[in-house]
Write a structure and sequence with these properties.
It holds the Pfam family DUF7848. The protein is an alpha+beta fold. The protein has one domain. The chain is built from 1 helix and 4 strands; from the N terminus they run E-E-H-E-E. The chain has a two-stranded antiparallel sheet.
């Protein structure tokens, strides 16, 4: 039999910090539908309240009640040390 090879892995620690100079964005897409989704989209909005208003308006016009929400933020990686 041959000699066994051992591998040692180190872990790299990174902390992520939200970039205070970048505004977060919120977006919703209507996924109400049986055969296919409605697919109406809010576009990028900058507050949860704006997103809620868009959803409320779309719901009032269509009766649609199911949405997929995406929230995007810009993060900065702050590298730590190898361990």
């Amino acid at each position: 039999m041959g000699k066994a090879t051992r591998y040692r892995f180190r872990e790299y620690h990174v902390t992520t910090v939200t970039d205070p100079m970048a505004l977060p964005t919120f977006e919703a897409v209507c996924v109400t539908g049986e055969e296919r989704d409605c697919a109406a989209a809010s576009g990028e909005l900058h507050t949860p309240e704006e997103l809620t208003r868009w959803i409320a308006g779309h719901c009032a016009q269509t009766g649609h009640q199911t949405y997929e929400q995406t929230t995007r933020t810009v993060l900065r990686a702050e590298p730590g040390a190898w361990q």
